[in-house]
Design brief:
By secondary structure, the protein is α/β, with parallel strands linked by helices. The chain has one domain: Rossmann fold. The protein is 41% helix and 15% strand. It has 7 helices and 7 strands, in the order E-H-E-H-E-H-E-H-E-H-E-H-H-E. Strands 3-2-1-4-5-6-7 form a 7-stranded parallel β-sheet, sandwiched between helices. Helix 1 runs parallel beside helix 2, helix 3 crosses helix 4 and helix 4 packs parallel to helix 5. It is globular and about 50 Å long. The two termini are 34 Å apart. The protein binds NADP nicotinamide-adenine-dinucleotide phosphate (NAP). The site of NADP nicotinamide-adenine-dinucleotide phosphate has 31 residues, from helix 1, strand 2 and strand 5. The site of NADP nicotinamide-adenine-dinucleotide phosphate (NAP) has 31 residues, from helix 1, strand 2 and strand 5.
């Protein structure tokens, strides 16, 4: 089996479960050594590490709360100390809170919304800034967005959509800044997946599926494949791009 990422070091945030775990497996399968982060699920994170090691690559899990931007520098230092460098960063970790509440809901938990902005946007910017200082030439940054950044589709998602739309603008700017070093920066906008992220209620799910071209929920491995492609040398001329892996939500 071809190993296009052999010798590369990857960091996947939120690699303990869901799309992050699928991405860690996919990058490891392509030959990369893989660091993952988690915030609460230590057991799940160490299971993913054990799977990666069984697949023949080096792997480690680091606890780092992305809602606290000041943790970014230490995280990147720890990864470089453990693996000797950094070539690939996948910003996957994110949360979705207060889903379904319209913006004029008087009972909205504003503190939870603020923590979501910190996790899904400010914390990611801090990790990109810290990683950019040490990433080797021809590195890869892939930010995980959502089709909801391009078309919200249902009420009650304004804040989550804003965090993901902000990521698109930052990606395009970062792509311009890092291109002289051969580092590409792209977004993969995921669609509905079978993960533990707040699943929509059955009625909303039915409505959302009816708006897809491919009318089924996605397997995280399908989105991980798009992320892994962007991490390979074959994607060296793609930067500042938004790749939708969402069953045709925006088609
Ligand atoms: N699920 C969907 O339908 C869907 C659709 C479109 C886009 N997306 C995007 O896809 C990505 C992955 O989503 P998912 O569904 O796989 O999510 P998930 O199953 O809820 O997993 C979230 C991951 O992020 C980590 N995480 C959460 N808060 C964190 C924090 N403060 N610091 C560090 N790590 C944190 C979690 O760690 P712990 O396990 O330790 O909590 C976990 O590893 C996200 O960017 C999401 O916005 C998802």
């Amino acid at each position: 089996m071809s190993k296009p990422l052999k010798g590369k070091v990857a960091l996947v945030t939120g690699g303990s479960r869901g799309l992050g775990a699928a991405t860690a497996r996919s990058l490891g399968g392509a030959g990369a050594d893989v660091a993952i982060t988690y915030v609460n699920s230590a057991d799940k994170a160490f299971e993913v590490v054990a799977e990666l090691e069984a697949d023949g690559v080096r792997a480690s899990a680091f606890q780092a709360d992305q809602a606290n931007a000041s943790t970014a520098g230490k995280l990147i230092d720890d990864v470089v100390t453990r693996f000797g460098g950094l070539d690939i960063l996948v910003n996957n970790a994110a949360v979705s809170v207060e889903q379904g509440r319209p913006i004029d809901d008087p009972d909205a938990d504003v503190a939870a919304l603020d923590r979501m902005y910190a996790t899904n946007y400010t914390g990611i910017v801090a990790i990109i800034r810290a990683a950019a200082k040490v990433m080797r030439d021809n590195g890869r940054i892939v930010n995980v967005g959502s089709g909801i950044a391009s078309r919200v589709g249902v009420p009650g998602l304004a804040d989550y959509a804003a965090t993901k739309a902000g990521l698109v603008g930052y990606t395009k700017g970062a792509a311009r800044d890092l291109a002289p070093r051969g580092i590409t920066v792209n977004v993969v906008q995921a669609g509905l997946m079978q993960t533990s992220m707040q699943p929509p209620d059955p009625e909303t799910l039915k409505f959302m599926l009816s708006g897809l071209s491919i009318q089924r929920v996605g397997d995280p491995a399908e989105i991980a494949a798009a992320i892994t492609f962007l991490a390979t040398p074959a994607a060296s001329y793609i930067t500042g791009a938004v790749l939708d892996s969402d069953g045709g939500y925006t088609a």
